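seq as requested:
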Amino acid sequence: MEIYVFDDTLEGLLTLIFDWYHRKPGPILVHSEKHHHPSAFHPAFEVVTEAEKASRVARGLQQKLTQAGWRNFYCTFLSEQPEAFQHLFQFAVYVFSGVENPEDNYGHDSVLYVSQMARKVEREKHHLEAFIRFQHTRDGMYYAPVEPKYNVLPLIARHFKDRYADQPWVIYDHLRRYGLYYDLQKLDLINIDFQKNNSTTLPVSISEETHEEMYQFLWKDYFKSTNIESRRNIKLQVRSMPRRFWRYLTEKQI
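struct tokens:
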């Protein structure tokens, strides 16, 4: 069975689907570059991402799926699970097969997988929206480091842009080494390499002092300013919070 390898981007996966229909090689295995291990015994077809091909596949899927169905497709891609890409490919082929209401046929393995995985990603999105807390740096920047299970920063961007429109902030995903930066006017993607203590695409309005402060614990100043009743409420919130978020709440240590 032939292996198709794409470049870990959504455009790459959509291009892969286009190329498969063009080449018609039969059943294939779908690998992302991140999870592919080259082998001399199993040569792979390297997909070259092309925006026009990807757009044509995206438009085709959007025409045949409901808005919720297309969002499920996107959320499943953001899960970054190796098996998700195979299921998304098979899901797309099933959608393009011409069946009616394809996203509702949970008897199809990939339809069921996409629905269930999208639900998990949406749950992670809601967790971050509820539990992210910002550290206020000396030059007025608000910073929050996160390590979500799935790549949900694209899903939470609008929520935080609307909710914190009056303050500059950075939400940085340490696992994936990129973040969201809002400067009161626009929202950008940034990359900061903390391990090497340097940065790429570091916004000029983030000072070096702020860059250093991004290593500190979150929310200390806020917690110290709260009264006893607020502390009790916070501790109750911590108990109901998924354990992996505790490391970012300084009050858990008190």
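The chain has nine helices and nine strands.
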